[in-house]
Amino acid sequence: MIKNIFLILFVFLTALSAHSRPSNTCLVIGISDGDTITCLMIGNKPIKVRLEEIDAPERNQPFGKKSKQQLSKLIYKRRVTLKISGQDRYKRTLATVYYNGKNINLEMVKSGMAWAYRQYLRQPVYLYAQQKAQSQRLGLWAEHSPIPPHEWRKQEKKYGF
């Protein structure tokens, strides 16, 4: 009798907790560049997700294509978990993306395929990862003087690339 009560209570609490917290898992269906993805949420609702705290090279910038390929290799067509912190000015969802317990945002910096985005940085671990990638000359750090994406975008505006 007591066993049955515990079993019923356990099933009830498990169901209750599953319904009380929203699921932040999604299926990655698109990679725009090294720091922006498209995900299908529950109900097949697509959302645009900007990986927070990092800035990847623009598509037409050196390493832009490689950065996109690296992010694709890590999470394309995979179910990921989002730790959502809000929205950016373009109405994209800002999030840290996890796959199999790994912080994908951080993995992009570790591999030298993205910068720690100092302007929006909250976690110093991204700076440490960038320094290590720089010292090992990984990815974009193999270049003599890589241009951060925010500076690249200013040049594009100014010179109309």
Strand order of the largest sheet: 1-2-3-6-5
Proportion of residues in β-strands: 25-35%
CATH uppermost class: Mainly Beta
User: Can you tell me the CATH topology?
Assistant: OB fold (Dihydrolipoamide Acetyltransferase, E2P)
Secondary-structure element pattern, one letter each: HEEEEHEEEHEHH
The residue fraction in helices comes out at 25-40%
Shape: globular
Low-confidence stretches: 3-21
**SS content category:** alpha+beta
InterPro entries: SNase_OB-fold_sf, Staphylococal_nuclease_OB-fold, Thermonucl_AS
GO molecular function, one term: nucleic acid binding
Organism: Rodentibacter genomosp. 2
Keywords: Endonuclease, Hydrolase, Nuclease, Signal
Helix and strand arrangement:
Layout: H1 2-20, E1 25-33, E2 36-41, E3 45-51, E4 54-55, H2 64-75, E5 79-87, E6 93-99, E7 102-103, H3 104-110, E8 115-116, H4 125-135, H5 149-159
Parallel strand pairs: 3-6
Antiparallel strand pairs: 1-2, 1-5, 2-3, 4-8, 5-6, 6-7
Describe the structure.
The protein has 161 residues and is an alpha+beta fold. Helix content is 37%, strand content 27%. A 5-stranded mixed β-barrel has the order 1-2-3-6-5. Strands 4-8 form a two-stranded antiparallel ribbon. A hairpin with a 3-residue loop joins β2 (36-41) and β3. The longest helix has 19 residues, at 2-20. Mean pLDDT is 87; it is low at 3-21.
Summary keywords:
161 residues; alpha+beta; OB fold (Dihydrolipoamide Acetyltransferase, E2P); five-stranded mixed beta barrel; globular
